[in-house]
Q: What sequence folds into this?
């Protein structure tokens, strides 16, 4: 538990002080279409930086899996949190959501389910279901197949890893949980 707390503190620090830079934008342009970038650019700066870090980790991991499509892995990393564009959270608000989810998961789930119909709690609903929301947004711009499936299921609390989990899903979940 202490390890998870330390990890979350580092993540918060990173979110406060990271900057989405020009080289990150160049990286993103190399992998996403104009429509995908239009969605991506609606993310908060700290979320865009997080996505780039995840995508670069996935690209590095691809060296150990030559059978995998590197381009697809990077796109998964860049787009995995696209559902958060509807959240509009600051780093402080996101930290509060994560703290509640970590220390009071039943209460978090209660608020998230209330948020499906109650605007006061909508932020919890969007945070909890951002994977599926992101997959739905991407489907509307013409993306299909495994990319949607992996993005929809990238939260292990909602969709635990199992024996039939794709290697792409495992790589995304690992990269997403270790920055």
A:
């Amino acid at each position: 538990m202490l390890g998870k707390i330390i990890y979350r503190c580092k993540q918060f620090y990173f979110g406060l002080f990271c900057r989405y830079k020009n080289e990150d934008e160049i990286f993103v342009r190399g992998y996403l279409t104009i429509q995908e970038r239009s969605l991506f650019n609606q993310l908060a700066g700290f979320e865009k930086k997080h996505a780039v870090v995840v995508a670069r980790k996935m690209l590095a991991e691809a060296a150990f899996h030559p059978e995998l499509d590197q381009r697809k892995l990077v796109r998964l990393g860049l787009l995995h949190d696209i559902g958060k564009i509807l959240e509009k959270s600051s780093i402080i608000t996101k930290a509060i959501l994560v703290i509640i989810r970590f220390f009071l998961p039943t209460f978090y789930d209660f608020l998230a389910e209330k948020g499906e119909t109650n605007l006061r709690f909508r932020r919890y609903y969007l945070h909890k279901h951002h994977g599926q929301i992101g997959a739905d947004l991407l489907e509307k711009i013409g993306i299909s197949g495994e990319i949607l499936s992996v993005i929809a299921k990238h939260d292990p609390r909602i969709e635990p890893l199992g024996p039939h989990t794709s290697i792409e899903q495992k790589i995304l979940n690992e990269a997403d949980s270790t920055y």
Remarks:
- DSSP finds eleven helices and no strands in the chain.
- Residues 2-176 form a domain with the Hypothetical protein af1432 fold (CATH 1.10.3210).
- The two ends are 17 Å apart (CA to CA).
